[in-house]
Amino acid sequence: KNQVEQSPQSLIILEGKNCTLQCNYTVSPFSNLRWYKQDTGRGPVSLTIMTFSENTKSNGRYTATLDADTKQSSLHITASQLSDSASYICVVSANSWGKLQFGAGTQVVVTP
Amino acid sequence: EAGVTQFPSHSVIEKGQTVTLRCDPISGHDNLYWYRRVMGKEIKFLLHFVKESKQDESGMPNNRFLAERTGGTYSTLKVQPAELEDSGVYFCASSRGGGLSYEQYFGPGTRLTVT
Q1: Contact flag B42-A31 (C-beta cutoff 8 Å)
Q2: How far is B67 from chain A (nearest CA, A)?
Q3: Which of A73, A100, B81, B84 lies at a 20 to 30 A Cα distance from A5?
Q4: How many helices and strands, by DSSP H and E, does chain A display?
Q5: What's the alpha-carbon Rg for chain B, to the nearest Å?
Q6: Which residues of A touch B94 (CB under 8 A)?
């Protein structure tokens, strides 16, 4: 069983609307949590990195939250754009050396 | 600054053949990682180099996979002999350091199809 679970598996939203993606993890010990954006045919690109002491971090229209007590994270996309269509992957690391544990991703489609 | 590059972008081989994937990290990045995503599954860690040394190879599936990083620059991942279940996308990533403050930059991946 994957130790990083994401929901929903996919979603379709209208351009300009907001959406929130969820990530639950059981990875222990916990070092940091990252959100990546992966466009079709490309490698993942980092959006945010948070340690256990951080509970929110923003990168433009992307805002990630982290609750290390409940082991939950969310990624909020504000005022979605067509270019936001991609897979969003939650990634958790148990150590600082970079061994990453990936969720299966949420496929987001933004329609005009 | 050039990003992480991988070669080839696609490879189709028959079961039992050998394939070698190459990764060129960002210049100056001592840390290099290999990952792979098989169909319908999440991306999984394979191994981690620090310069030319293997820091962690706990994700390598079996001894048909051999990774090298001679000279601490580019890396190769050889699959010999390839099996059907090896099909997937192989990603390489690099980072300047190994701590959590160091971003991992991913290449575009090599799509491997074993028939």
Answers
A1: no
A2: 16
A3: B84
A4: 0, 11
A5: 13
A6: none
* Shortest Cα–Cα distance, B82 to chain A (Å): 23
DSSP three-state, residue B72? helix
pLDDT digits (tens, 9 = 90+) for A47-105: 999 988 899 999 999 999 999 999 999 999 999 999 999 999 999 988 766 678 999 99
What pLDDT is stored for residue A93 in this prediction? 87
Q: How many CB pairs under 8 A join A and B?
A: 62
Residue B7, beta-bridge partner list = B22
The pLDDT, as a whole number, for residue B100 is 60
Taking an 8 Å cut-off on Cβ atoms, the answer to whether A49 and B100 are in contact is: yes
The tens digit of pLDDT for each residue in B29-45 reads 999 999 999 988 999 99
Distance CA B43, CA B22 (A): 18
Q: Where are the beta strands (DSSP E) in B38-87?
A: 44-50, 53-56, 65-68, 75-79
Is the model's pLDDT at A4 over the cut of 80?
A: yes
